[in-house]
Amino acid sequence: MKIKIKWKNIFFLLLILYIGYIFISQQIIMHNIKEQIAERRTDEQRAKVKNQRLQDEVKMSVSDMYIEKLAREKLGLIKQGETPVINNKN
User: Fold this and answer.
1) Is residue 85 part of a domain?
2) Which of 13, 24, 58, 85 is paired with 78 by a 20 to 30 Å CA distance?
3) Which long-range contacts (CB under 8 A, 24 or more apart) does 50-59 make?
């Protein structure tokens, strides 16, 4: 009779350990998923900021001031009466 009780106790102990293992594993998985969600939200926020910056740049690109700025920087154009500055490093 003592042997049956010991086997029963061992069985319940193993069952409790197994349930504890499953619970801890699920908690670890949930923690990892929450971290991934936080990372994705951060990535999404960065993408939104970049998107807004690009949209602002597109809006600005049709203005005369922006076109003049590009002409000065890329093509080296100057207005009448200005003195050109030559940079030999490029």
Assistant:
1) no
2) 58
3) none
pLDDT in tens, 23-58: 999 999 999 999 999 999 999 999 999 999 999 888
Residue 81 counted as domain residue = no
pTM for the full predicted model: 0.56
Residues ≥6 apart with Cβ < 8 Å to 84:
76, 78
- Residues 32, 33, 38, 44: is their CA dihedral positive or negative? positive
How many angstroms separate the CA atoms of 85 and 50, rounded?
33
For residue 3, the SS3 value is helix
- Determine the structural domain holding residue 35 and report its residue range: 2-75
pLDDT digits 0-9 by tens, 4-19: 668 888 899 999 999 9
